[in-house]
Amino acid sequence: MLIRLKSHALGVAFLIAASPYAARACTDFYTKIPNVSPALCQAAQLRPSGARSVQGRAILVRDLATPQAQRRVLVLATMHGDELSAASVALHWLQMAQAAPAQTHWRFVPVLNPDGLARRTPWRMNAHGVDLNRNFPTPNWQRETKVYWEQRTRKDPRRWPGPSPLSEPEAKYLFDEIGRFDPQLIVSIHAPYGVLDFDGPVLPPTRLGRLYLDQVGVFPGSLGNYSGVQRGIPVVTVELPNALRTPSSDEMAKMWRDLRLWMDKTLPLPEPQDRPALAQVPLTTP
Question: Nearest to residue 58, comparing CAs of 101, 25, 93, 33?
């Protein structure tokens, strides 16, 4: 089956062969995602990463790279299962990256927490009730996450960090993926605070579209703490204004352009001879 997908950025249409797996993925829990047509989802050509959630759902991924790719960027969304708009923006950005990948190897993970999203009423945590964004191995994890959860959140179940760092298969997958892919940048899409957050050793972007920089702090067990602070891999955290409704198409495109401009200014491309071999995602079948 062929899908005709129009690129609004370029004003052209192009044909993409839809694989049987991509078609099945887009009739599963992806139907819950707002502002995503079947054609857009199928054209994303998502593939199983080889990792699965607590309940056995495949964590899907898409690689986009040209032979000239010299920069690696990991884009992930829906770490919290009730942030549906985040997955939508990731898929729209994936379409934009398809239209113009430039010199970047993009790796998209639109839904890191498929179990939370797939519930009849989506919720923040994974199927074990763990907040995945507090499950990464930051220093003094046992003590600091306990203090944070008990004193700062008053044992809010939506923010339980879990029994131990990387106790959850979804967090372990992302931890391993960062090691395999070795990105120069991680973009993590969330909702609904309507701000731009940042952790890392370089100058942050001041705005993406209508979102302005407002660094909210460093939390024990968070991805920003683990990657941006501990490992020195910049993390741009996009907090969309609404968890159930996406920004307009023009606004999503403006955010994408601002992200690309900031990347070109702040993350210079390495020399080709210094570029390590790109890690490829194995294409597995369910």
Answer: 25
